[in-house]
Specification:
Blueprint lengths: L2 H7 L2 H4 L2 H18 L12 H14 L5 H6 L4 H5 L6 H17 L4 H17 L4
Helix pairs in contact: 3-4, 3-7, 7-8
The structure holds protoporphyrin IX containing FE.
Protoporphyrin IX containing FE binds next to helix 4, helix 6, helix 7 and helix 8.
């Protein structure tokens, strides 16, 4: 198979840089979340466990290994967010931090936009307040 044909078979996860790419994205994202006035107060001071869970979740969300389900069971992400007051403003802020992180890790613009597009659905779906 030609390199080009292989390229077309890449999963979105691989296009984002696989495990290492997702890890870098998460490490760029959470400091922005913590610094955001609307988001920071919702999160614990020790952000490491949240980063680990997000790494596992995004891995499977983008088509890589189903790490979150293996370690934490069914994602039920909307239910897991119910204890937190998620407003439309917070969903937009979350997506804004993610947009910055996607740019910061140096992904191609088209990939940045595609990733954001995929995350927009869940982010708005988690609004509960
Ligand atoms: C819409 C705005 C969002 C807000 C304000 C928000 C906020 C939060 C908060 C406060 C937590 C709990 C942190 C803790 O453990 O104390 C959390 C956990 C988590 N969030 Fe979000 N989140 C949002 C959107 C999303 C989206 C779009 C995704 C992924 C598509 C996501 C994935 C996760 C994951 C994987 C966890 C860990 C769940 C667990 O504890 O098992 N979040 N989020």
């Amino acid at each position: 198979m030609s390199e080009e044909a292989k390229d077309h078979q890449k999963t979105f996860y691989e296009a984002l840089g696989g495990a290492e790419g997702i890890r870098r994205l998460v490490e760029s994202f959470y400091p922005k979340v913590q610094a955001h006035p609307l988001l920071g107060p919702l999160f614990p001071a020790d952000i490491t466990p949240v980063m680990d869970k997000q790494y596992m979740f995004l891995s499977q969300f983008f088509g890589g290994p189903a790490l979150f389900s293996e370690h934490h069971g069914h994602p039920m992400m909307r239910a897991r967010h119910l204890p937190f007051p998620i407003t439309e403003e917070r969903a937009k802020a979350w997506l804004g931090c993610m947009a910055q992180a996607l740019e910061e890790v140096g992904l191609e613009r088209s990939l940045q936009l595609a990733a954001l597009e995929r995350l927009k659905g869940p982010a708005y779906h988690f609004i509960n307040s």
